[in-house]
Amino acid sequence: MNIRTVTVIGVTGTMGANVAGIFASFGNAKVYCVGRDIEKVNRTISRIVGSVRADAVAGNLIPADFSVLEQCVAESDLVFESSVERIDVKIEIAKRVGKALQPHAVSCTGTSGLSITEIASCYPEDLRCRFFGVHMFNPPYSMPLCELTPTVYTDKAVQAELRGYLKEKLYRTVVEVKDSPAFLANRIGFQFINEALQYAERYKDNGGIDYIDAVLGPFTGRAMAPLATSDFVGLDVHKAIVDNILENTQDYAHGTFIFPKFAQELVAEKKLGRKSGGGLYQLVRYDNGLIRRTVSDISTGQYRDVIPYVFPFADKMKKYIAEGDYRKAFEQLVDNYSMEAHICRHFLLDYIVYSLFAAKEVGYAIEDADDVMATGFNWCPPLAMYHALSTVADVPALIRENLPDVCEEVDIDELLAGVKPSKYDYRLYFKSGW
Amino acid sequence: MDKVYILGGAQTDFERNWKKEGKGMVALLKEVMADGLEDVGLSFDGIRELNKDNRVACFIGNFIAERYTDQGHLGAFLTEVDPAFYGVPSARYEAACASSSAAIDAAQAKIQAGDYDVAIVVGWELMKTVDPTVGGDFLGRAAYYEKEGKGVDLPFPKLFGRLADETLKKYPDLDEKRYMDALAQLSTINYGNAKRNPLAQTRKWFMSYGQANMRGTGTNPFVGGRLAVSDCSQVTDGAVVVVLCSEGFAKERGIKRKPIIKAYGHRVAPMLFKKKMADNKGSGYILPWTRQAVLDAYRRSGLTVEDIDVFETHDCFTSSEYAAISAFGLTEPGREYEAIESGLIAFSGKKPINPSGGLIGCGHPVGASGARMFLDIYKQVTETAGDYQVENVKNGMMLNIGGTATTNYVFVIGVE
Which residue of A60, A346, B94, B365 could cross-link A24, Cys pair, CB 3.0 to 4.6 Å? Predict the structure, then answer.
């Protein structure tokens, strides 16, 4: 697939800008950067250059607005729509793109959850076969995951060519997923994050948000604790993802996608997270340079200082991880009967089970779950997590012991029969710090 | 003399930032040792067994852990990795960025002398423990610190920038633009090769010829004279294990089809850059002692440049890789650009240099780099380099330098 000219629609958004950078750099394509406000587009160009750390790509970036959308599309080999996550907006854009798209060109949407098939059906019949979901993760420069979604209309030869282009030219980790709400990575990741949010509510008298994050911190195989991640992404985005899954899917973990009431209230008050100056957490900056990290206390609705919790199992795990004694670290997790260790085990084991389950439902192979979680979330991927725990325990037995309810809902033996060695090294995901 | 076999080894993922993972040198050494021993089919119990008869020893290459991690006595430090190392002879070797080559050299000598049957070489450096300016000052100790490093911001980029200046001065026929274009091409090749290496630091990074040749911008600022960030290797954390053994051990264990060290070269040039340049006046080469180390290795191996199928070189800066091209004998001195422009040294060329990505692409944890190149040549010769495997490799050569090409180490590895 020879892609020399690309149009990115919605370039002033975070993903639009970052994706434009990927096409302009690795793809060395001329990129029409289309936004509603040309002034804003002009200001975005330097951000795009910065996102790929290369002034040399500036020459590939051409600012444009919606008044010239059709001209840009008509010149393009690939069109990438990265507009606001509203189906009406995406349909309107699809109709305009469909009128100008060249017969040899490919069109994509970067939506993180809307129906690809529904958008595809807005294209003229002869072009629907050339439309795909191409879902990247933020920031794509360091998160290479790309979820590729074909539709019922898809021309398989075009899909294979597009896949090759994304993989070979743009250096993406391409995972083909079904046209299912939130696709694979967010389905797995937000099952975990949203259940953590529910647990924060359930354990609000133990501390709530920062308490759960302290139980599921970087020592459990991730760079950032789950609720800190939600705060970083934004509670509004988090809510949109889980609402979509809750409304349009039905599986054993259905209840874990219900967005908790206290979080609804934070959203209503526009306390969305880091981007709005506070959400689950709030950083308070003083004139003398001091920064105080505070957290919303679910019981009172007020921000208070983050508590430096001390859980013996977690402290020992961190100490062992710091010295590279992973086995001993996992022994602490497996052989500890404190409530916190129990919660931690529940989450890590259910993460394995739900990942394998979702990979079957939304992906095509069990390894897909590994690829999406490693390269889209930077979490220890599920098969690597399985391997990590299997160094100290019989993982199926551990699952039966810790997840009796889940075991009643899913055929655990059949699911675990598909477990394979992971191509990812679990060691680098388990960190000892906060 | 007895042959020295290479059994294999392991490299850590050079993308990793160990400080960010909350891990230090104990974790680094435990991981790389576990992986290295697994690769060669040895266990800690196996080491205990060999150690009963004093048949195994360890050789540690590290430049300056005293500064980066406040730790010396690094040979003995292996006892913290596993009790199996209690009683195992182990010492640290230092020759700046050529430290682990000095460790390999000592290891092969001990095996050849019949002192030990198995030698475990570990090269390592943790550099992200401090900010790059402080780290740059530490590295200044690889030059004559008092005269070339002290109080200088990033002394090494400046010294290798001077090597670029001196190259242009020494070869008046060399067009400046042609030279700078060639350096940009070297950077592009190294970044491009790193994309195939799953352990390379820059495997996700973007670099193009356009970017490498656009120096002095916000994303590619000058760091040393005419050299910019794209001409430099990066600050890297990493460790490498290489395991060598004697012919007797190979026979005893039924080990077959492992490559051997065919030759080494080791020459030291004047410490001060100024004296080094004054010293080259009588030679066609800008770095005559680097060339001599290569010649020594050719002589000892009985091979010529025609016999070498792949090279790994010390591209701490593009200007050092440029000089290495003629030192290897791939071109006449002063005409190194020919090998770059013709594609001779590209991944698909006849004489690829740095299929791993080199120091610029793969990364440069200084005390580990010699062992990393050695392991990469081993992989090429044994056809285990995966996506960066060069076709039909029988012999490979590596050049590892310390300081401003002050210490020069060359090894030739090949099939028997």
Answer: A60
